[in-house]
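Appendix B, Record 12. Input sequence as logged:
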Amino acid sequence: MDFFVHLAEGFIGMFQKGGETFIGLVTGIIPTLVCLITAVNALIKFVGEERIERFARLCTGNIILRYTLFPVLAMFFLTNPMAYTFGRFLPEHQKPAFYDSSVSFCHPITGLFPHANPAELFVYMGIANGITQLGLSLGPLAMRFFLVGIVVILIRGIVTEYITKMMIRRREAQASA
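Logged structural output:
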């Protein structure tokens, strides 16, 4: 009998924990995201969508800037997960590569700018804890993490854009055949 009672308590407990997590989201990240989305959209309206798009074209016209500067700016100013909305300024065939670059930069930015992705700060802090226990400075670690991250997002962006273009060409070839 105790087995069934324990099973029933565990079953309902799973849903209670899910409810607690949901309440945490509703009182935590969701209002923040709504306010951030509203502020970004208001800023775009104040500055002018044409100016923002012109700046985005300037940053994305060059493949190197497209997958280094643009994702870094997106992650720094909009943070995770709002940073991905910068993709709206790109043509469709570049959006997957921008997303790949941006999402790949979530961890490398946290050492220097923890506000950009505080939910994943534990990854950096786990490594940083070991470095501080050795009596070493975190500055060089944060800089290396950041710089290597930029190289990685550039490579990922270029490769993903190439793969995306190849897949689009295949799909178009199949459609016309």
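The chain has a mean pLDDT of 85.
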